[in-house]
């Protein structure tokens, strides 16, 4: 009998490539729609391996219950692991991730948010559908000669720099661990805030980067600055962001992530009353676009996520060492 691998938080688009690529592996997939948390951990009973995504909650309680259910390996089908209590998990489970699947997917989505917000395509789209062909309120600016500040120059930050290289912008960067021997123009965090017309976040969520965009850093930014976050929601203090938008200090915000997204994103709440007033207020703003953590969502990225996750799981079942860069310690 083939061992069963339990997947949490699975949507139809997740299954496509796991089904296509998974048929040749010596294990079966059991896809659950529910997110992983302390209540749903018990559903893993009978599986030594579970597969988890970004909005699952792998806190100590959930991990304890997974352990009681007999789980030995957690295969994250994502790059980030800020949602896992690593300190507790590291000696109890083998944890693998997919460190890179398509930096282009996220970088291109970031550019999409900037272009849409600047040229107000979201508003134009709604207007022309109602035969409103007025241009009032739709003025943008040339990106050429403007300054963009990139926070975090890892795989996605660097790919994003390549993607925008044809736009004629001045590109500044901040990273506490700069890329050695590169021609990236690094500046201090404060200088980046002070000089940038657009700021884009591409760093992981850590203790140090939590609320890196807050009231103080916003106060140092240019009037009308665009803030783009395709990394992790809690990099931005959402209340401070909302106030910055209301005061018109912040000219626009493109948010693919939100600090309280866990219970909302990936689900359809169009029939309910959203209780998160900050998110609801942000969404009412004409100069804010919220996408629900979809920057990764391209065919290429989904295929690579499935490919690498299946390989990681297969290493577990065949007792083969996992490649160093996929192990979370
Ligand atoms: P990476 O590990 O290649 O690069 C992260 C960079 O951030 C590194 O250069 C690191 O030195 C830098 N960094 C660390 N702490 C920092 C700080 N406090 N301030 C500024 N920079 C700091 O990661 P990668 O692949 O480029 O991904 C970046 C982030 O993008 C991930 O951590 C994840 O949160 C997010 N992401 C979002 C996705 C989405 O669908 N919206 C999909 C994939 C990743």
Strand order in the largest sheet: 7-6-8-9-10-11
Question: Helix count?
Answer: 11
Q: Give the biggest beta sheet.
A: 6 strands, parallel
Instruction: Give the overall pLDDT as a whole number.
Output: 97
The coarse silhouette is: globular
Spatial gap, N to C terminus: 31 Å
Structural class: alpha/beta
Radius of gyration over alpha carbons?
21 Å
Order of helices and strands: EHEEHEHEHHEHEHEHEHEHEH
Taken as a percent bin, the fraction of beta residues is 5-15%
The distinct ligands, each listed once, are: 1,4-dihydronicotinamide adenine dinucleotide
Helix-strand blueprint:
Elements lengths: L3 E4 L4 H11 L5 E4 L17 E4 L7 H9 L4 E4 L9 H4 L4 E3 L6 H17 L1 H9 L17 E5 L3 H9 L6 E5 L14 H7 L2 E4 L13 H5 L5 E5 L8 H9 L3 E6 L21 H8 L3 E3 L8 H19 L12
Parallel strand pairs: 1-2, 1-3, 3-4, 4-5, 6-7, 6-8, 8-9, 9-10, 10-11
The structure holds 1,4-dihydronicotinamide adenine dinucleotide.
1,4-dihydronicotinamide adenine dinucleotide binds next to helix 4 and helix 6.
Model description:
This protein has 329 residues and is α/β, with parallel strands linked by helices. It has eleven helices and eleven strands. It has helices at residues 12-22, 60-68, 86-89, 103-119, 121-129, 155-163, 189-195, 215-219, 238-246, 277-284, 299-317; strands spanning 4-7, 28-31, 49-52, 73-76, 94-96, 147-151, 170-174, 198-201, 225-229, 250-255, 288-290. Strands 7-6-8-9-10-11 form a six-stranded parallel sheet, with helices on both faces. It has a five-stranded parallel sheet with strand order 2-1-3-4-5, with helices on one face. Helix 1 (12-22) packs across helix 11 and helix 4 (103-119) crosses helix 6. The chain is globular, with a radius of gyration of 21 Å. The model has no long low-confidence stretch (mean pLDDT 97). The structure holds 1,4-dihydronicotinamide adenine dinucleotide. 1,4-dihydronicotinamide adenine dinucleotide (NAI) binds at residues 79-80, 100, 103, 106, 151-157, 174-177, 202-206, 208-209, 230-232, 256-257, 293, 295-296.
């Amino acid at each position: 009998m083939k061992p069963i691998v339990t997947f949490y938080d699975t949507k139809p688009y997740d299954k496509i490539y796991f089904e296509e690529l998974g048929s040749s592996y010596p294990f079966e997939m059991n896809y659950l729609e529910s997110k992983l948390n302390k209540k749903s951990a018990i559903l893993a009973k009978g599986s030594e391996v579970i597969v988890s995504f970004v909005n699952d909650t792998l806190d100590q309680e959930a991990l304890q219950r997974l352990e009681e259910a007999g789980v030995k390996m957690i295969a994250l089908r994502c790059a980030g692991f800020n949602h896992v209590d690593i300190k507790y998990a590291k000696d109890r489970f083998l944890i693998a991730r997919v460190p890179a699947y398509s930096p282009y997917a996220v970088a291109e989505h970031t550019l999409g948010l900037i272009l849409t917000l600047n040229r107000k395509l979201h508003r134009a789209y709604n207007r022309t559908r109602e035969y409103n062909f007025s241009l009032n309120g739709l003025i943008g600016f040339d990106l050429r000669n403007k300054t963009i500040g990139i926070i975090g120059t890892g795989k996605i930050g660097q790919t994003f720099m390549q993607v925008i290289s044809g736009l004629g912008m001045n590109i500044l960067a901040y990273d506490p661990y700069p890329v050695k021997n590169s021609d990236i123009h690094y500046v201090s965090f404060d200088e980046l805030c002070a000089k940038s017309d657009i700021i884009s976040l591409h760093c992981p969520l850590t203790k140090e980067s939590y609320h890196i965009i807050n009231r103080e850093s916003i106060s140092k930014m240019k009037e009308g600055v665009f803030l783009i976050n395709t990394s992790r929601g809690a990099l931005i203090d959402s209340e401070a962001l909302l106030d910055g938008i209301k005061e018109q200090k912040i000219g626009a915000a493109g948010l693919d992530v939100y600090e309280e997204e866990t219970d909302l994103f990936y689900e359809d709440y169009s029939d309910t009353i959203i209780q998160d007033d900050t998110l609801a207020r942000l969404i009412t703003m004409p100069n804010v676009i919220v996408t629900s953590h979809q920057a990764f969502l391209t065919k290429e990225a989904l295929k690579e996520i499935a490919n690498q996750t299946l390989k990681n799981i297969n290493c577990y079942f065949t007792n083969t060492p996992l490649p160093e860069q996929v192990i979370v310690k």
